[in-house]
């Protein structure tokens, strides 16, 4: 005899979860940092960032949910929270073994031992940390090689420029300090593509993250190309979602004299993940093949673009040009740019995603950087655009310079390049430069970080403060000081769990077990009796509940269970079979097989055999009667 039951899932329970402070410590530049755990404004801190004394633009750092630093990186090396390189944390992109690597710093060509050379340090967004969606102890570390690599003989090599790799850090290794997992280091991502020096990430809609890069322009390209690589419980997808939102407005010049080009700056998502902003510069330039040095720049232009982003499918669309300008062609080491030429270096959205901030900078040639041409007019700084109208003309007209970064003055010129980043306190931070006093003889600068205190407000109501942070000393020449503060760490995409429990209404037909089927990958279960298996044994009617969850989703089901046994009993009156009580439907059986057209409340037997009936009530519950054996039917067949 089969017994049937109905499960009813009847209510929705809401709850709000805390997300932790995963970006409470920023590490950047040459080992500078900000610690948001230590007060407001956050004080500076210093940490080891040892790779031969090289200055670095790229950086990324990650904390645990309590805001405690776990590790930091510039893309090619990774350090634990104590400042030591992880045992397997060197050369996170393929290492080219040559005696020296040669780089230019402040107009001087300097050689570094190749074992300390970073192929990502010159890439503004060359490092990115993505937590595993389903393992709180593991992290993907993405490394993007920049476009100005050398081969050790002061000649450029393009073979690995603009290539993307990832490694896996497991915090359970190295006594809890973390290490790069053996066999999971410098794994190539889409090896056939070459990317510009911009990389960012956004959380998707299904326990996933989109790592977004854009293709470096090459000869013959007519479209912009963005590639979004999905990171989920299965790993890093090698098949990106490709978006081509618009025609490219820049072109490499087809000339035998040009063998190097760069597209660099920053791109960032809005906090609501519906917008993507890009502030960057594109340039192609001539390489003196006897020295490997950049001499002439072509097609140098700056641009500020706004796009739509779909976090459900990873697509970039609807490009809107907020600003663009061209610097023309000049001798990089001797001539000057037009004062009206402006590039863009960094972008950042307000917490409400309605205001865009950008760093607008004048094109500076080397001669201008060293004061050869005297004071340069301020044409940039921190600019603000109001996006609330969603009208590109209105957005352009809303432009206002909120901080001209005049404190970055050196030798009568201005170096106003800076990153912008939203802090865990919902304020936007930027490098405001030096402040008084300045000891010229000692070469000592007193650096400061600026802050936009109310970034959701338009105009000067946002209250920019160029001296918001504590001061610190940098014993260096002024240009090196600017580089020592370089870019803030890349944004960390944190998958946040749902803030509500979802309802799952299900009909189950079994009185012995309840089966909680979670619609995701690696769920956990918690029943009202404390059991944690997906199956729950049931012996009686009553009210039960189960909580199921994965990294992102929570489901709370309350089950009102009524066990009802129809238990039909067959009775006989002469040769007529019926049941002791009426039911809604009937199907009579002989020897386990349905009898055609035998669907009434009674059935007249025509032959010997084992008779049963399947019955149901008005709400669909069904049951089957026990066998009633008929053995004395004679002479009735065909009657």
In short:
The chain is mainly β. The chain contains three helices and 49 strands. The chain is elongated and about 110 Å long.
Could you describe the 3D structure shown?
The protein is mainly β and 639 residues long. The longest helix is centred in the C-terminal third of the chain and has 8 residues. It is elongated. The two termini are 33 Å apart. The N terminus is likely disordered.
How are the elements arranged and paired?
Layout: E1 4-9, E2 25-28, E3 32-35, E4 44-46, E5 60-63, E6 69-73, E7 77-80, E8 85-90, E9 100-105, E10 108-113, E11 127-131, E12 138-144, E13 164-170, E14 179-180, E15 187-189, E16 195-203, E17 209-215, E18 226-232, E19 235-236, E20 241-243, E21 258-269, E22 275-288, E23 293-310, E24 315-331, E25 342-349, E26 355-362, H1 366-369, E27 381-386, H2 392-397, E28 400-403, E29 409-410, E30 413-414, E31 420-422, E32 428-439, E33 444-452, E34 464-465, E35 472-475, H3 478-485, E36 501-502, E37 513-515, E38 524-527, E39 535-537, E40 542-549, E41 554-564, E42 570-573, E43 576-579, E44 585-590, E45 593-594, E46 603-604, E47 609-616, E48 622-624, E49 628-630
Parallel strand pairs: 36-41
Antiparallel strand pairs: 1-41, 2-3, 3-4, 5-6, 6-7, 7-8, 9-10, 11-12, 12-13, 13-14, 13-15, 16-17, 17-18, 18-19, 18-20, 21-22, 22-23, 23-24, 25-26, 26-27, 27-28, 29-30, 31-32, 32-33, 33-34, 33-35, 37-39, 38-40, 40-41, 42-43, 43-46, 44-45, 44-47, 47-48, 47-49
């Amino acid at each position: 005899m089969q017994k049937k039951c109905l499960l009813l899932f009847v209510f929705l329970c809401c709850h709000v979860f805390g997300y932790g402070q995963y970006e409470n410590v920023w590490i950047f530049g040459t080992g500078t940092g900000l610690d948001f755990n230590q007060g407001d404004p956050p004080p500076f801190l210093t940490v080891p960032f040892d790779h031969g004394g090289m200055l670095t633009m790229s950086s990324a750092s990650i904390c645990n949910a309590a805001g405690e630093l776990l590790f930091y990186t510039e893309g090619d090396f990774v350090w634990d929270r104590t400042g030591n390189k992880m045992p397997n944390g060197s050369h996170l992109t393929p290492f080219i073994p040559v005696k020296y690597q040669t780089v230019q710093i402040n107009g001087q060509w300097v050689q570094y031992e190749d074992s300390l050379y970073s192929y990502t340090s010159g890439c503004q967004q060359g490092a990115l940390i993505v937590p595993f969606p389903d393992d709180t102890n593991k992290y993907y570390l993405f490394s993007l090689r920049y476009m100005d690599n050398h081969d050790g003989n002061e000649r450029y090599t393009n073979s690995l420029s603009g290539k993307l790799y990832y490694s896996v850090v497991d915090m359970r290794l190295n006594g809890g300090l973390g290490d790069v997992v053996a066999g999971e280091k410098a794994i190539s991502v889409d090896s056939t593509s070459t990317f510009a020096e911009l990389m960012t990430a956004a959380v998707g809609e299904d326990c996933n993250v989109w790592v977004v890069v854009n293709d470096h322009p090459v000869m013959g390209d007519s479209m912009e190309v963005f590639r979004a690589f999905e990171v989920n419980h299965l790993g890093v997808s090698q098949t990106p979602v490709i978006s081509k939102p618009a025609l490219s407005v820049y072109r490499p010049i087809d000339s035998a004299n040009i063998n190097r080009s760069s597209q660099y700056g920053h791109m960032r998502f809005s906090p609501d993940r519906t917008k993507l902003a890009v502030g960057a510069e594109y340039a192609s330039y001539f390489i003196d093949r006897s020295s490997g040095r950049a001499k002439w720049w072509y097609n140098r232009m700056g641009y500020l673009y706004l796009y739509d982003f779909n976090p459900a499918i990873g697509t970039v669309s609807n490009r809107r040009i907020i600003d663009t300008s061209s610097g023309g062609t000049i001798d990089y080491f001797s001539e000057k740019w037009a004062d009206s030429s402006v590039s863009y270096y960094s972008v950042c959205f307000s917490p409400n995603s309605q205001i865009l901030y950008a760093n607008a900078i004048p094109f500076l040639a080397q001669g201008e950087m060293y004061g050869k041409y005297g004071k340069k007019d301020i044409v940039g700084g921190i600019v603000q655009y109001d996006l609330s109208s969603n009208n590109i003309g209105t957005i352009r007209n809303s432009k206002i310079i909120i901080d001209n970064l005049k404190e970055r003055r050196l030798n009568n010129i201005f170096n106003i390049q800076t990153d912008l980043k939203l802090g865990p306190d919902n304020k936007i931070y930027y490098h405001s430069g030096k402040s008084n006093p300045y000891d010229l003889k000692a070469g000592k600068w007193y650096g400061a970080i600026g802050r936009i205190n109310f970034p959701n407000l338009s105009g000067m109501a946002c209250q920019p403060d160029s001296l918001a942070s504590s001061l610190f000393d940098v014993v260096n020449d002024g240009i090196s000081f600017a580089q020592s503060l370089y870019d803030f760490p890349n944004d960390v995409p944190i998958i946040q769990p749902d803030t509500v429990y979802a309802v799952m209404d299900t009909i189950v037909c079994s009185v012995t077990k309840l089966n909680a089927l979670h619609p995701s990958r690696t769920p956990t279960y918690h029943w009202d009796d404390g059991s944690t298996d997906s199956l729950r044994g049931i012996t009686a009617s009553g009210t039960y509940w189960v909580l199921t969850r994965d990294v992102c989703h929570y489901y709370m089901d309350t089950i009102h269970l009524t066990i009802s046994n129809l238990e039909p009993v067959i009775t006989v009156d002469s040769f007529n079979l019926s049941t002791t009580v009426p039911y809604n439907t009937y199907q009579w059986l002989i020897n386990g097989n349905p009898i055609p057209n035998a669907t009434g409340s009674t059935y007249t037997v025509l032959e010997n055999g084992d008779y049963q009936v399947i019955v149901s009530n008005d709400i669909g519950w069904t049951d089957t009667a026990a066998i009633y054996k008929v053995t004395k039917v004679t002479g009735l067949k065909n009657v």
